[in-house]
Amino acid sequence: MRILNLFKIAFKAIVLNKMRTLLTMLGIIIGVASVIAMLAIGEGSKESIRENISSMGSNIITIRPASASSSGVRASGDEMQTLTLKDYEAVKDQATFLSYATPLVTGKGQVINGSNNWPSNIYGVNPDYLKIKVVDLQSGSMFTDAEVKTASKVALIGQTVVDNVFPDGQDPIGQMIRFNNIPFTVIGVLEVKGENTFGQDQDDVVIAPYTTVQKRILAIDYINQIMASAVSEDDAPNAVTEVSEIMRLQHQISNPNNDDFSVQSMEELISTFSSTSEMLTVLLVAVASISLLIGGIGIMNIMYVSVKERTKEIGLRMAVGAKGADILMQFLIEAILISVTGGALGVLLGLTSTVFIEKFLNWPTSVAMYSIVISFAVCAITGIFFGWYPARKASALDPITALRYE
Amino acid sequence: MSKAIIKIEDLKREFTMGSETVRALKGISFDIKEGEFVTIMGSSGSGKSTMLNILGCLDQPTSGNYEIDGVKVKDLTKNQLATIRNEKIGFIFQSYNLLARTSAIENVELPLLYNSKVSTEERRKRAIEALQKVGLGERLDHTPSQLSGGQQQRVAIARSLVNNPVMLLADEATGNLDTRTAYEIMSIFQELNEQGITIAFVTHEEDIATFSSRTIVLKDGNIIQDYKNENVQSAKEELAKLPKQDD
Ligand SMILES: Nc1ncnc2c1ncn2[C@@H]1O[C@H](COP(=O)(O)OP(=O)(O)O)[C@@H](O)[C@H]1O
Ligand SMILES: [Mg+2]
């Protein structure tokens, strides 16, 4: 028998049972659509995290104070005063896997220019900071090591600060601003970086020599962080190990469990985040796959009903000359038509909902071609797999038994 | 002497139901020659359908030999049996067995769908011809629910004819019809027989048997009578004699 005829027969059966077929397809449609949408969301968030974090400088290494995990009371790292300039110097002098390093002290305060004021953050750093963070300047220049040494009252500001304290569009370079009532001369404006992964506005900053911030604003002699950059992204893990060892020597710690600092590379951060989102993706896809499986069982169910309902028809077809293989193919094609059509509709629905998610929820999405190919293939296989058994059963019927079936 | 289309020898069919064995056919032998119109009579449960199903290759005998058109059925595979049913036999059922929600022409085309030698155009042409032969040339696109019982049986006859079988097998084909419609159907069978088609017609109604040239009577799985009918009635004439319906 010609395969085209079998397609016609199967197609006719589907058309004669439009509503039922549609309901059966619904399982497959939802299954495929959710697999595609879930993968698009997972893939999209992974990509955007990677992009964002990389834009923050992918070989950055940070050293922060941390409470020893073995001690009973845990203090928040920010309040701890265990990190000193001596530590910074030791790290800078001894580490071989680092290219740049800077102490970092941070404070919050009010930026004032005449009648304009704006709450912002001040970062006290050394000139290497720009190289570590991979930030360029829009205008002006960075302060020098000499200015650090003398604790000069010079500052660089981000675009958000510019927008808020120089609303008239005048050039900030050379202007005087006050940060918590301490006057600073603006010597540079940072290039625009936008929000980072955590939603922080990276342009809402004032950067000044760390000595100035320590003495004149915070009145402290410890530092909050040491920020450094590894020689290369690949060397970041080595740098982390090396820096940890230097720090342990500095702090006379022999057991790593008693570390009163933490060293973290951006690379670690990226993989932490991507692995969480990867896990999430796996979870989402698992849920979606289950709905695809349920869709498949729906097909099997409907094919069983279809075979039962049409037992007499099968008997008649056999009586007029249909072979077992013809009946098998007829029902198999019917199952595959249902699942593949459902799959195609599911792909459409998945793509549309991905667009909607991107547009209205503002979630980053990225449709992977493989997700379409795989879910489509899974659909066809589902059709064959779940259609096979009922079709097989139909084809094995005895013509006279089938004809007599009521 | 014309050749035998059907030859059966000591045909037995037993059904086992649990511990009980029903012997539906107890060793039957006869030939049907080309061009014959044979009525198979007998009371309900005498084995008529069982025999016809075996003749139609829908069922297999427990023992005995069966040859159709020179082919020994016993040696055939399932697929070969399907081909025999497709090409050599036209089966007509009491309950028509048309595909619901499917037009007359598509119903008639059905056997040709399973015959890969026939093209789409040829299939359509032959289906139309078959429907014209049974007087339904105007009802090609009607579905079974839009047709009367008699018309549905005509579609079924057209379907049985469409693949040019060597033999028509009808199981109580007039059983669901009133006398008038039954005679109309019988006149179609008589016409087909005059054109040379061999027919085996199962019925339990005496008057139907008078339209055939030979009658075989079954009782409890045995042939108790097998006689030539010297005085074949014309269904058309009998139809004319029936009182006119007034509905
Ligand atoms: N599939 C079957 N299983 C068991 N017994 C059957 C089956 N088909 C027919 N029979 C038995 O065989 C006998 C003949 O049946 P059948 O050929 O249908 O009679 P008829 O058509 O003459 O009325 C009956 O006793 C019936 O009960
Ligand atoms: Mg019967």
Automatic annotation (TrEMBL), chain A:
Start and end residues of each MacB-like periplasmic core domain: 21-245
GO cellular component: plasma membrane
UniProt-recorded Gene Ontology molecular function terms: transmembrane transporter activity
InterPro entries assigned: ABC3_permease_C (IPR003838), MacB_PCD (IPR025857), Macrolide_Exporter_MacB (IPR050250)
Transmembrane parts of this sequence: 21-42, 279-306, 327-348, 368-389
Keywords, sorted A to Z: Cell membrane, Membrane, Transmembrane, Transmembrane helix
Domain of life according to the entry: Bacteria
Subcellular location: Cell membrane
Sequence ranges assigned to domain ABC3 transporter permease C-terminal in this UniProt record: 286-398
Pfam families tied to this protein: FtsX, MacB_PCD
Topology of this chain in the membrane: Multi-pass membrane protein
Record flagged with keyword Repeat: no
Similarity section: Belongs to the ABC-4 integral membrane protein family.
Name listed for the protein in its UniProt record: ABC transporter permease
Automatic annotation (TrEMBL), chain B:
Parts of the chain that traverse the membrane: none
GO molecular function: ATP binding; ATP hydrolysis activity; transmembrane transporter activity
PROSITE patterns xref list: ABC_TRANSPORTER_1, ABC_TRANSPORTER_2
A single cellular component GO annotation: plasma membrane
UniProt keyword annotation of Transport present: yes
Stretches assigned to the ABC transporter domain: 6-245
Coiled coil: none
Statement: the UniProt record of this protein carries the keyword Nucleotide-binding: yes
Annotated keywords: ATP-binding, Nucleotide-binding, Transport
Family: Belongs to the ABC transporter superfamily. Macrolide exporter (TC 3.A.1.122) family.
PANTHER family listed in its UniProt record: ABC TRANSPORTER ABCH.1, IMPORT ATP-BINDING PROTEIN
Protein name from the UniProt record: ABC transporter ATP-binding protein
Organism: Gelidibacter salicanalis
